[in-house]
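Reviewers of the previous submission asked for a worked example of the structure-prediction workflow described in the proposal, so we include one complete record here. The input consisted solely of the amino acid sequence. No template or homolog information was supplied to the procedure at any stage.
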Amino acid sequence: MDGRKVLDAARMVNLDRCPIEDLDSADGAAFARAARGRFRKDGICMLPGFIRPETLEILAEEANACVGDAWFCRGTHNVYLAESSPDVPTGDVATRYERTFVGSVPYDRIGEHSSLRRLYEWDPLKELIRVVLAKPQLHRFADPLGACSVNVFVDGGEHGWHFDESEFSVTLMVQAPESGGAFEYVPRIRGRADEKSIVAAVLDGNRRHVRELPFTAGALLIFGGRETLHRVTRVSGTMPRLVPVLAYAERPGLENSDEVRMLFWGRTGKPTA
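From that input alone, the workflow returned the following structure tokens.
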């Protein structure tokens, strides 16, 4: 780790505020129930103060040290992250395109003994997420690039309005940018009868349904992005917005496709050198 301090996961997490080491205990069970309730209500659960303030800077130091290993993709997409069918009428929301410019540091470029990896590999964290999502089982993602990555938004970075392909995502807010980088969302509209009218209004700049989640360094975010329209607004300044992404799956051994790896990391597997 180049002389940098490495922390055990139990020392990183504010267990007084978030008692997750034993979810069968009275305090642990109450905490998990409350977190599950927040997720059921809006499809999003933010746990501020999850990481201790005095150790957050170590995570930020690690993330900043690997920014140079980020692969950046810049392009346009519709809110469904899919090609628009020729049969779709002109003006349909599927024919309207958003801009995205974001980098991602792959798992194999994050230090093998880093604090971030130790947190990702900590079973109490996985168990908390399983309970919040009400899954019968949960496994760490087996992808060599996408198991745990770091999203990097530099000056001009943004992620346009979209629904996720995956059911849920787990992110850690590590470093806010100088300006911009707000997380905005419209909860649980996928599949509603008025879905497209709401999406069209949002794309037109109508903010009636839009909510904003403040960037709170040290917070853990569990988010159902497949049902919820969301975006990250454009970042400006020299300090990058850094957000580790912790990936899990309901079945063991799951990995991304080669196409997804090429899109987000510019290669399909571990580097040859």
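The chain has a mean pLDDT of 94. We consider this example representative of the routine output the project will generate in years two and three.
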